[in-house]
Amino acid sequence: MTAVPTASSEALLDFDRAHLWHPYTSMTDPAPTRLVTGAAGVRLTLVDGTEVVDAMSSWWAAIHGYNHPALNAALAAQAADFAHVMFGGLTHEPAIRLAQRLVDLAPAGLEHVFLADSGSVSVEVALKMVLQYQRGVGHPERTRMLTVRGGYHGDTFGCMSVCDPVGGMHSMFADVLPEQVFAPRPPAAEDGVAAWAEAFEAVAAAHAHELAGIIVEPLLQGAGGMHVYPAACLAVMREVADRHGLVLVLDEIATGFGRTGTFFAAEAAGVTPDVMCLGKALTGGYLTLAAVLCTPRIAVGLSHSESGVLMHGPTYMGNPLACAVALAGLDLLADGAWKADVGRIHAALTAGLAPVRHLPGVVDVRTLGAVGVVQLDHPVDVAKATEVAIENGVWLRPFRDLIYTMPPYVSTDEDLARICTAIGAAAGVA
């Protein structure tokens, strides 16, 4: 047989620009893209041979790095058995074992697991759980969600409705989305908690008759602005939810699996939510998979709604390949070494980004766990900042007025120093 010639990198990129949409980009005026030809450890290899440290963990998912032998082996072993089987009426060992592990790891009381196929879908499922629960316990009039300004929960319609409707990425859809209830954004410092708590409670009390639940990202608001807030705010939300009969949903898609310094961000406040969403790092960046955990009270309550069942069921629910890789990834976290790695990364980012605070145009530098954020007083010139970061051997993906990093946990001190240098260089030109 005659071998099919491989398309040149220029031809591939030309087709990409002409036909392939990328996240939040224009088809008529596409942003530059770079062709990746390999990835190992924390480094991406670009088509011209350039190697860059991935400071983004592939949007916060690849916490173990790339081409990890344990994750590769788990994927190959499961593929040799079967790659997928419908979850309706059938089950399989990887899904069962993963559910067991998640229940064991989650805050006590979260005992039921729904395996979704993306973070956004997990939030959609959580919202359905909340609404069906309220119907099941005799409150069908409770249909709105309470959340806070500055949040981001995904790109599908239910998710967009609980994202910030004014400053968020989905404000253009505000007129066609369900109208939710928004309280002020949590404060950045402890001394602002008391005043914020009073305002949050006032909003909840005013709308309690129509509210079904509360949904927030714990400790760290991600794509809504990388805003960090005190753990005490979570305790306030738990108290308010209990006082008004609301379901508390914590979206741990970005914060789960150690990113903020505890295995789940909720642990920092000693809070157990009624529903918890997980994703991103769950499979170490290998395959898309998410999970929604809830308490028995929520499971029983929603089962009393008129359908009698949770009304959701994705085609790829509980995909065996994804479940097998997720189990292998959890094995890598089982010895607790992640905690020292996250602490080491936090110290390196705190020290390495401190000088950036004094650059012109920088208004804030903040760190939380394995997260480092530089905020500017103007929108980032993404193309220029990206180019400078690559020149410094690092892949960054700034947005809005933020240049930030969420590096893989396996990043070395040398990698972290390079990341900080690249962020400083990017902030200097952006």
Automatic annotation (TrEMBL):
<keyword id="KW-0949">S-adenosyl-L-methionine</keyword>
<protein>
    <recommendedName>
        <fullName>Adenosylmethionine-8-amino-7-oxononanoate aminotransferase</fullName>
        <ecNumber>2.6.1.62</ecNumber>
    </recommendedName>
</protein>
<comment type="function">
    <text>Catalyzes the transfer of the alpha-amino group from S-adenosyl-L-methionine (SAM) to 7-keto-8-aminopelargonic acid (KAPA) to form 7,8-diaminopelargonic acid (DAPA). It is the only aminotransferase known to utilize SAM as an amino donor.</text>
</comment>
<keyword id="KW-0963">Cytoplasm</keyword>
<feature type="binding site">
    <location>
        <position position="152"/>
    </location>
    <ligand>
        <name>substrate</name>
    </ligand>
</feature>
<dbReference type="InterPro" id="IPR015424">
    <property type="entry name" value="PyrdxlP-dep_Trfase"/>
</dbReference>
<dbReference type="InterPro" id="IPR015421">
    <property type="entry name" value="PyrdxlP-dep_Trfase_major"/>
</dbReference>
<comment type="subunit">
    <text>Homodimer.</text>
</comment>
<keyword id="KW-0663">Pyridoxal phosphate</keyword>
<feature type="binding site">
    <location>
        <position position="313"/>
    </location>
    <ligand>
        <name>substrate</name>
    </ligand>
</feature>
<keyword id="KW-0093">Biotin biosynthesis</keyword>
<feature type="site" description="Participates in the substrate recognition with KAPA and in a stacking interaction with the adenine ring of SAM">
    <location>
        <position position="24"/>
    </location>
</feature>
<feature type="binding site">
    <location>
        <position position="59"/>
    </location>
    <ligand>
        <name>substrate</name>
    </ligand>
</feature>
<comment type="pathway">
    <text>Cofactor biosynthesis; biotin biosynthesis; 7,8-diaminononanoate from 8-amino-7-oxononanoate (SAM route): step 1/1.</text>
</comment>
<feature type="binding site">
    <location>
        <begin position="119"/>
        <end position="120"/>
    </location>
    <ligand>
        <name>pyridoxal 5'-phosphate</name>
    </ligand>
</feature>
<dbReference type="InterPro" id="IPR015422">
    <property type="entry name" value="PyrdxlP-dep_Trfase_small"/>
</dbReference>
<feature type="binding site">
    <location>
        <position position="280"/>
    </location>
    <ligand>
        <name>substrate</name>
    </ligand>
</feature>
<keyword id="KW-0808">Transferase</keyword>
<keyword id="KW-0032">Aminotransferase</keyword>
<dbReference type="InterPro" id="IPR049704">
    <property type="entry name" value="Aminotrans_3_PPA_site"/>
</dbReference>
<dbReference type="Pfam" id="PF00202">
    <property type="entry name" value="Aminotran_3"/>
</dbReference>
<feature type="binding site">
    <location>
        <begin position="314"/>
        <end position="315"/>
    </location>
    <ligand>
        <name>pyridoxal 5'-phosphate</name>
    </ligand>
</feature>
<comment type="similarity">
    <text>Belongs to the class-III pyridoxal-phosphate-dependent aminotransferase family. BioA subfamily.</text>
</comment>
<feature type="binding site">
    <location>
        <position position="397"/>
    </location>
    <ligand>
        <name>substrate</name>
    </ligand>
</feature>
<dbReference type="InterPro" id="IPR005815">
    <property type="entry name" value="BioA"/>
</dbReference>
<feature type="modified residue" description="N6-(pyridoxal phosphate)lysine">
    <location>
        <position position="280"/>
    </location>
</feature>
<dbReference type="InterPro" id="IPR005814">
    <property type="entry name" value="Aminotrans_3"/>
</dbReference>
<feature type="binding site">
    <location>
        <position position="251"/>
    </location>
    <ligand>
        <name>pyridoxal 5'-phosphate</name>
    </ligand>
</feature>
